[in-house]
Amino acid sequence: MHHFAYRGGVLHAEDASLEAIAKAVGSPFYCYSEATLRRHVRVFKQAFAGLDALVAFSVKANPNLAVIRILASEGAGADVVSGGELKRARAAGVGPDMIVFSGVGKTREEMALALAEGIYQFNVESAPELEALNEVAVSKGARAAIAFRINPDVRAGGHDKISTGKAADKFGVAWGRARELYARAAALPGIDVRGVDVHIGSQISELAPFEAAFTRVADLIAALRAEGHAIERLDLGGGLGISYGDGAEAPHPDEYAALIRRIAAPLGVRLIFEPGRMIAGNAGVLVTRVLYDKPGEDRRFLIVDAGMNDLIRPALYDSFHKFIPVVEPDPAAPEAVYDIVGPVCESSDVFAKARRTPVMRAGELGAFMTAGAYGASQASQYNSRPLIPEVLVNGARWAIIRRRPTFEEMVAGEETPDWLVV
User: Fold this and answer.
1) CB 150 within 8 A of CB 125
2) 337 pairs with which residues across the strands?
3) pTM of the model
4) CATH superfamily of 103-273
5) Alpha-carbon distance 101 to 265, whole Å?
6) pLDDT (tens digit, 9 = 90+) per residue, 188-240?
7) Do residues 229 and 193 make contact, with C-beta atoms less than 8 angstroms apart?
8) What is the DSSP letter of 345?
């Protein structure tokens, strides 16, 4: 569910007209619904009512400080994968005891920062990382609470590029080495073994891969406890899919929770979840303006002012985003089949191919739906295009929560060597 709907013939975010916002801030821009963000985190948390569970929002999905602050006010923690994301979570009010640090390439500087902040848990992904973390912790007179991220060799995810639990993926430690690594970790003075972590992919639309992975991990916990490890936490990652409007559906959080209750409840562990897309995806849209309706030799192009640098998911993952006019079309309005493309100088700057939509003219606004996750967070300034504004709506109120930078701000960090100065 989301809070974007036509009212009086114009697409609104809650009670705010996207047409009016576009007039004020220009296009393109991202718009997020606070009501949707709050509803989604509440639905997810309610699914696990009665269980000891930490919901740690995956910051990489949408790192805007205002978004993180909203979710923190609902009792959510943060799953971070860099020192920068850790600083964002703390700046947005997330307590250190609700932060989990994931990722395969943590630097020693990031480890030191996380230890100084007193985060809840490191999800360790390799033997070399374990040794480095131990050295950093010992040098700081600290002990790092850890879980090993286990790679269960389970294929899952909506695309090969977002599947993370296969043996060939870079993530996690091999299933066959897990017990050996736990034994090594238990012997290190700077390491405090607390749990097991698993995360098999993103945009997963069926429960079977979760069941296969979680069952394997439950068996591992039993084996580790038999060997003397006090496993008290189970981090099940994220990955629950959402509907992008292409007809494909995803399990409801209640169905997901029922599966987990059956497998994990008997273990007596604290559960940790890292949802991102499920909370933020349908809470945001990308609003763009039509530049040209261009006839081609064998197709018709609708050229819009948003580009792949603003929303890279279609180019990177072949992802589907529903596209609708901001002004509600008449049911009898003529339609056309378009390739919807952006202005970036790349053939891959395509949002949709052969998409049937009402005929749109230059100057009219459209919205790419379900753009609240992995949209602005993956944006770049390719082609020297500035990052676009992010807007947050609360009822009829709205505010810019990231403004469009000026050209001078875009180049402020660049320097010209003395020998190039004439």
Assistant:
1) no
2) 356
3) 0.93
4) Alanine racemase (3.20.20.10)
5) 24
6) 999 999 999 998 877 888 888 888 889 999 999 999 999 999 999 999 998 88
7) yes
8) S
